[in-house]
Amino acid sequence: MAEPLVLLPGLMCDARVFWPQIAELSATTAVTIAPVTQGERIEEIASGLLDQLPKRFALAGLGMGGAVALELLRRAPDRIIRIALIDTSPLAETPQAAAARELLIVKARSGRMSDVMQHEVMPHYLPSGPDKGAIMDLVMDMAETLGPEIYVRQARALQRGKDQQAVLRKCKIPALVMCGEFDKINPVKRHSFMAELIPHARLTVINGAGHLPTLERPRQTTAALQDWMGMPFVLQ
Length: 236
Fold this sequence. Notes:
Blueprint: E1 5-8, H1 19-25, E2 31-33, H2 42-50, E3 57-62, H3 64-75, E4 80-86, H4 95-109, H5 113-120, H6 132-146, H7 148-159, H8 165-170, E5 175-180, H9 188-197, E6 202-206, H10 213-216, H11 218-229
Parallel strand pairs: 1-2, 1-3, 3-4, 4-5, 5-6
Helix pairs in contact: 1-11, 2-3, 4-5, 4-7, 5-6
């Protein structure tokens, strides 16, 4: 059996954002979904997870989950066997982006989660396709399930996030950097930049996908993760 795999969902997402991958990979891999909901700082979230996760594991993070994954790698490099960063960013939020979140926090606290998520994952961030409406419905349902308190925590954590480029440069384990071709939140150019910082990283762009390739192009995303899981530990 492959080493345990820990999946970290993105902003206001739960296990359902990875459901196609869970269904496919769980036949041969112990898959854990670790929530990124318990803390108002990325460091606090990562610290809380370390006590709950396996001794050694493969780690994949989507969006905000990728930011937490990088903090876990910084804190416990000896425990992480390989890492996948999906539609994410190693950069701290700009002051402008952090300020814009204050308005979204006000909306969340006033019960306007629909408005908040329309901004966070606007419909045009997902390319047109037969499943676009269903995916947006799922995004909204995950957000409503988690609720405004968790949104506020996660927004605060993103506002306070630190630059993790140094972590990428020190990464010596098999690494996958993956994004959707049409992701407008964290575009391909940013992922190319990340892959260049990581020694021996593999960059994979999922054709036809936007910000949520795990749901938009599940077969291609799962195949990329399977290839990554098979990468040798000793990189030449």
